[in-house]
Amino acid sequence: MNKLLFFVFPLIIYLSGCSFFEPSDYSLSKFDSAQWIEYGTVGENIRYEMINDLFNKHLSIGLKKETVTDLLGTPDYINESDNEYSYYLGWPPNSGSYMRIDGEVLSISFQNDVVKDYYHYES
User: Fold this and answer.
1) Which residues have CB under 8 Å from 77's CB, separation 6+?
2) How confident is the model at residue 24 (pLDDT cuts 50, 70, 90)?
């Protein structure tokens, strides 16, 4: 029994610690257009830290494409066939980014040059 606990207990500790690296609240910074554009894709997570405020106060369905570009700068990737802009966000804070290959991405899709939908996902 003691040998079983010797192996099971560390495993439980390790697995419960993994959830520590996936923060549930990422509203760490207020959105700042100048910082968003300046930091771009340099591997910082400053964009990730602003995403909640961006979603809640600045980005909305119906915005014109030109307004989005003024707000967020030139997209990191443009998918012409799907009429979609993508912006690299970096990794979530405390995510153990050393174990990740790709970070997260903000995707904005347009219809008739206005925002139709937007979301972020792990790439």
Assistant:
1) 85, 86
2) very low
